[in-house]
Specification:
Distance between the termini: 39 Å
Helix content: under 10%
Radius of gyration: 23 Å
Number of helices: 2
Strand order of the largest sheet: 2-1-7-6-5-4-3
Strand content: over 45%
Length: 160
């Protein structure tokens, strides 16, 4: 298995799982490792990690590196033209189905985070919480509590 590793956004490496398994590394604490490579000793420490985005900040002999790792599935998804980051550029939210607006939890100008609850849409006797697809600022709200909406109706717009 091959991994694509990007270091400090300017160095790209391909590393095999075989090379990783042959690495002479000893764990010396929860986040620190002692590594021997080409007869040189290195102390490495993972100072920050974001498992979801597969990004890490690693300190090696007091030099800090920002590292992003892509596995074969990430590379395949990217090659197919899909990417997780493309979903983050959504500028508006439309009704996924016809329904009734039960509750609006946001106001124009409000800053929201990804996965914050924006509004509740009742459809077929079920309450559906629509959440923010990204961090952003609410530009406009096209509905109000009690409105009936059709599928595809504009509900919320984000500032770009």
């Amino acid at each position: 298995m091959n991994f694509n590793v990007n270091v400090n956004s300017n160095i790209e490496l391909n590393i095999t799982s075989e090379a990783v398994s042959k690495l002479d590394a000893i764990k010396i604490s929860e986040s620190k490792y002692h590594i021997l490579h080409n007869n040189k000793s290195y102390i490495s420490e993972i100072t920050t990690s974001d498992f979801n985005s597969k990004s890490y900040e690693v300190k090696i002999n007091n030099n800090t590196y920002n590292i992003k790792i892509k596995n074969p599935l990430d590379l395949l998804i990217n090659d197919m033209g899909f990417s997780l980051s493309s979903a983050k550029h959504i500028d508006s939210i439309k009704a996924p189905m016809p329904g009734l607006i039960l509750e609006i939890n946001i106001t124009v100008g409000q800053t929201v985070k990804e996965d914050d609850a924006l509004l509740i849409l009742e459809a077929m006797k079920m309450e559906n919480v629509l959440t923010s697809p990204r961090d952003g600022i609410i530009k406009s709200i096209s509905v109000k509590k009690g409105d009936a909406v059709d599928k595809g109706s504009l509900l919320i717009e984000f500032e770009k």
